[in-house]
Amino acid sequence: MSLRFRFWLVAVAALVVNVLGLSALAGWNATAATSPVPSATANGVSPAALAGLTLPTATPAGLPAGTRQDCPRPASPLQEQCQLFTRGVKAARAASRTATGAGVESPKVLGLGWSATALQSAYAITAASATGGIDQGTGDPETVAIVDAYNSVAQVKASLPTYRQNEGLPACDTATGAGCVTIFNEFGKASPLPAVHVTGWEDETVLDVEMVSAICPNCHIDLFEANSANLPDLGTAENSAAKVAKFISNSWSGGDFPGESDFDQQFFNHPGVAITVASGDNGYGAGYPASSQLVTSVGGTYLTSAKGTPRGWHEVVWSGQGTGPGSGTAAGCSSGEPEPAWQPDASGGQSAKQCANRTENDVAAAASGPNGISMYGDTSECPRWCQAFGTSVAAPIIAAIYALAGTPTPNTYPSSYLYQNPADLFHVTSGSDGVCEPARLFLCNAAHSLSDGYNGPTGLGTPDGIADFVNRSAQNIVSVINPGTYDVRAGVRYTLPAVKAYDSAPGQTLTYSASGLPSGLKVNAATGVISGVLPAAPASALVHLTVKDGTGAKSTVSFRIISVKSLTGSFRGVTGPVRLDLAGKCLDDAGNSKAAGAKAVIWSCDGSAAQNWEFVPSAFPGGPGSIRIHGKCLAFNASGKIVLAACGTAISQQWEITGADGGLLNPATGGCLDDPSGSTSNGKQLDLATCDDVESQAWTLPASPVTSGVTGKCVALDHGATSTGAAIVSSACDGSAAQKITLALNSSLRVGGKCLDVSKAGTTNGDTVVLEPCSSVPSQVWEVSSFGMLENANAEKCLADPSNSAVNGRQLVIEDCYGMPGEVWAVS
Q: What pTM was computed for the model?
């Protein structure tokens, strides 16, 4: 999906992230006076619920004893984690010094991993490393930027000279800048740098500069240090790096979470810059930002020597045993990121054997070996020589190889170069990073690679020289950003956001054309804006949009426009208390008034008529709903105070359910329904305040139906059965108890005293959804995603009515999040 979750102010423990608006919403216009503007994304985020998905920090399976994960596990989806494991080496130090002379330690004698020389040999870049990394236009060193968190200045300055000396690399040339490091804060300034914060990111930063040095000794390195490991800080550093460098390495990753794609345009859309991102180290499953269509996603291999073979080296997918940290390179089918035009199944055909969303990865490099990869540190975690493991090793290797290949073509995405001639890479044909769908084994198993050698864990393969990292197209390149699926309401006029496109040749005029558009919609040939009135009948259209320049160069992206009937057409409202997660308080209509302007207050929950509210969802997929009582709607006035008002289309009356934090969000302002200062005084008037995930903003709505994009259907218990393991089905909306569902504060969906769960915590397309005792396990966490999809936090797949069936009693399942009608829901 082009946009999935709206992120407002989120606070988790000490994490406070500022408001991130959705500029794309400005492109949505509903010109019919009676048609409210649909929200491109729906609702908020539940970091507290997702925090439980991170895995323990014990010694990872498949890595040597004594190996530790350097960076702490994320506290929320907005926090990133460096993808590095290290193992200190203390044995044989005395022998090493004796053998090599005082002051120099031999990695070989110490029993360390692959050296710079070995890595250059493995990827056939020895000659390129010796002479490359020089800008052919200026003669200056190419600059590789590294983005990391916190302040590691002292460690980098102490470690890098020793590493370069021991690895036989030239020292920093202060005259040209080759081999030198310049350090900036996240805003691209020399000062102030972030505070020193010992978390393990020091090792990550040291490793990154050493790996770039190992592959491209002549390159200059710009190190951008973000104030924290939170995505907005790292993203700010990313934007600063893109202003000065054409190559950026990111050795950090997070989960594939609802809302990630909103960050694509903010932080990662830098055509003409090679951005590499570590895929992650938790085995099968996609992660962000590696899943962004705008970056090069880098997987990891296990590299061994293979004397007597033509190459002299052998690689398999890096994998451990079981699941969790260190279990292998991450990979998979993203739950919502759209697929770039150059990837498998880019036609959008949703083949069961492929993935119509973004597929990780694009390419791979060494993440492990018999003794890992050598690094030299001056940190508490890695004093002197260490063995390093993880996709944190692979990401800077690939960024440095891009630098050896030369400056990318302007207005292109360098990840696309890999797909021009995939035969020019070393294909990896064995190993897996976990268990995935039997019908799509290529997503996790290299033995089931596609015809061009592609598989999820290692992408198209590993470097065989620098040839495949250069744009070798004989014509201009037109690059088009895939907007992803649009779920809309049938029979309404729409103006969709313009599709973004870039041309490698300056001065070219781009023209847009489309096939497969629903009748009534047209694309503006000059702007790429799609607009018109949709037919009244629901439909699913696979659109192929082609952008061409004056020379005939073109590119095509495929996406869907899916229209559904009004989501309130079969809605049967339920009234009841709106409870605050604070001292037994409820939302109350002061004095049980029916007058416009009456105050909305908190009051002790008493079941009176003044607390008998109804949430009415939007008729539009993912749109904001209204909160009603006595024929009036909850609204805020000019002072931000909450009152009752005559129901209409005013933005002050629009509320979205944010999910696990219980927030009721006004999308126009980004503010949340709030009990000021967490007051427990009866009669305290509510207001609109910055969303900050606190008890005073945590509301639970009455148990109500969840209506489907399949006309007339609701989520229901199968024949009302409440036994453990009972099927969850799609059935005709009837307002019965079997269809009254509560979205709880921990983002579980509760009905009949139990919770919706994926059978056996499954993660495969088609795994069934059943009723289980509530336990707050990740497979019971459901996030309200874009256009009303409900994404399962454990499986990274969406609640689905299979085949968009209108048959009563069809058991619900999880499937890839494609925005089909059977995946569109109105939670109330």
A: 0.89
